[in-house]
Amino acid sequence: MNEIRAISLPDTTLIAAYSIFIASYFVFALGKFPGLKIDRPGAAIIGAVAMVAFRIVPPREALHFIDFSTLVLLFSMMLIVGNLHLVGFFEWNVEFVLRRLKPTHLLPAVVFACGLLSAFFVNDIVCLVMVPFVLAITRRMKLSPLPYLLAVATGSNVGSVATITGNPQNMLIGSFSGIRYRDFLFHLGPVALVGLFLNWAVLHWMCMRGRARSAPAEAIPLPPLDLSRLAKPVVVVTVVITGFLVGVPPVMMAALGAAVLLITRTIEPRKLYDEVDWGLLVFFVGLFLIVGGAENAGIVSRLLMFTRHWNLQRLDVFTIVVTLFSNIVSNVPAVMLLKSLVPGFTEPHTVWLALAMASTLAGNLTITGSVANIIVVETAKPDVHIRFWDYFRVGFPITLLTILFGLLWLAMVP
């Protein structure tokens, strides 16, 4: 196992380190600090500053704990996806597909459209784009929107497991593991594909049986699409994805694509910057420093010693632990902490993939399991109120079936 470095710290500093670490992960678990307006990014900033202020992370060493390749990849993909969003790429394609469907085909179309888009682009943006159109199309077809909103959330989560750029935790794992984009896709792409079919089957069984059919929506002209604005982003995205597949490091390829898209005469830079989730980037920076401080104080090494009693060398046990931990503290903080375990496994390559698979698919268990779920729930208000049980009754079987298949697949494929 890779050695987790720990430095000798005074008792008072150790107490401060434990307090900061526990308080930070407490907020990550709840989403907000009780009685205060401190959310996860805020807790990450406060925790990081406290780690440096108490000299748990020496100021001169702070930058060494931050993985800049992950931040650059995440930032670059946000700019690329933001550019596509601004030129209407997602909206036009979604409307083009959804407006030509029969009601019986709508559910699988939503599941697979969200899954495919989320496989190559950050799934949070896909959810933001899809929810308004799903609400509009179900209103015109006189259908209950709930099953289709659940399809947006669960389909986006399942589809995003396929690639390094599907979601933030995969980007993190891609950076730390060194697994190539194509290798990642080869191993987890089938998990995403079969998972989408399982997703569709569960939603159809749980939500669609016995429902009356509805007439197709009336034909409405598609919104105008400015091809002159769309051509450049589509070409750049095609080149970027091709670069990923042929083996160019994702961080370099994404950064080049984002840089080219910033050279523009049509889009105001400020609008593009507004598409970036700055809170998520800040959350990552703070989390790097909090976990770095935990490593310096020996907290991580003690946690790793404790987990040796759980027989985590077994892939099924490790997957269960990742699934549970991802739902307790959220998937990104879980990955940040559990990444130190992986190099000690006999087959670290498989375990990295299992970490990505379980932490992503675990997001379908509850509403708070992933940011994508929360985006769907909040964006759907006030039209639809998705309750905890509404989500859990489909999220539980989807999570169970997809993780079970993912575990069996990774156990069989070298």
Overall residue-averaged pLDDT value: 86
- Contiguous low-pLDDT stretches (5 residues minimum) are none
Structural classification? mainly alpha
Span between N and C termini? Answer: 21 Å
Count up the helices.
Answer: 19
| 3D shape | globular
Number of separate strands = 0
Q: How many discrete structural domains?
A: 1
| Biggest sheet descriptor | none
Helix content: over 70%
> What is the radius of gyration?
22 Å
Indicate the proportion of strand residues: under 5%
| Helix and strand sequence | HHHHHHHHHHHHHHHHHHH
Structure, explained:
The protein has 414 residues and is an all-alpha fold. It has one domain (11-412). The chain is 70% helix and 0% strand. The chain has helices spanning 11-30, 40-53, 68-86, 89-98, 103-120, 123-140, 146-159, 168-177, 181-208, 227-246, 250-262, 269-274, 278-296, 299-307, 315-329, 331-338, 348-361, 371-380, 388-412. α3 packs across α11 and α8 packs antiparallel against α17. The chain is globular, with a radius of gyration of 22 Å. 47% of the residues are buried.
